Amino acid sequence: NVDINAANKSGATPFYGSCLNGHFEVAKLLIANNADINAAKNNGITPFYIACHNGHYDVVKLLIVNNADINVATNNGVTPFHAACEKEHFEVIKLL
Fold this sequence. Notes:
By secondary structure, this protein is mostly helical. 47% of the residues lie in helices and 0% in strands. The mean pLDDT is 98.
């Protein structure tokens, strides 16, 4: 059996990687198999944060629909909303 929530040294899980890279179908599959959608890396960056930061609209929407915690800030106090604004991802900002 595979641990779907296994993390690497930096705390990144397979689900985090799918959100980082905007792989909507992979993220959807991992959610269907009980991936921890709020698992943060060691630096406090969550899958939701990184999807907002990278402008992955469909993944952001998927996370919202699946009740991800959208207000968690990184260890440095940066929120997903701040990240989306900084990167000018206007469609993501409208979702938030």
